[in-house]
Amino acid sequence: AYTRFFRIGSNPAWPIKDVGHFGILALSLSQKWDGRLLWGECQSEPLYLWGLGLFYKLFSPSSLSTRLFPALVSILTLSLGYAAARQVFSRGLSFLAVSFLMVSFWDWVFSRTGIGPLTVLPLEFLVLGLLARALKTASPEIPRALIFTALGAATGLGFYSYAVWPSLFLAVTVAVVWRGPAGSRRLRDSLLFFLASGAVSRPLLLAHL
Predict the structure, then answer these.
(1) How many angstroms separate the CA atoms of 94 and 107, rounded?
(2) pTM assigned to the model
(3) Residue 35: is it exposed, middle or buried by C-beta count within 10 angstroms (0-12/13-18/19+)?
């Protein structure tokens, strides 16, 4: 966490154009909520703006709060990355993977750059963690139907993050549909996944039409 807050008020010295663009839109959203799903001349997806707009309601809009929000999202990304890795790897190997993630170009740069693509990585880890859990042997603690419904909802939410999300959706769909032998259980799981992802993503997909 320390690395994400070190010299947060001075590095970079001045926000880049896209940071200002998202900051202004989020400021407008914090003052008066707007139901639009596509924002600005580039028709940006809304998830980052929603988060920053709500953050501005809790903390006064400023250069510092604009920098603080992506730092907190970066910490959330590392936490979700560790949780996803623990579904597959040991505790030590998961910690090593998150250590590499912490110094990776993507997470480090975006922890200081508040723009839309910042929301892709935490959602990726959320989805991959749920997918790993879903593909495991059924657990008595969590109903199988609930896991696939949650996986579908999280995958559908990803469409609100950035335009690259359909590639991950395709990869997750392949893993859900073509895993193991065919049967009624696989059909039910796939149906729950598609119903949940479709219900969540439908408003945004319609907004693009």
Answers:
(1) 17
(2) 0.89
(3) exposed
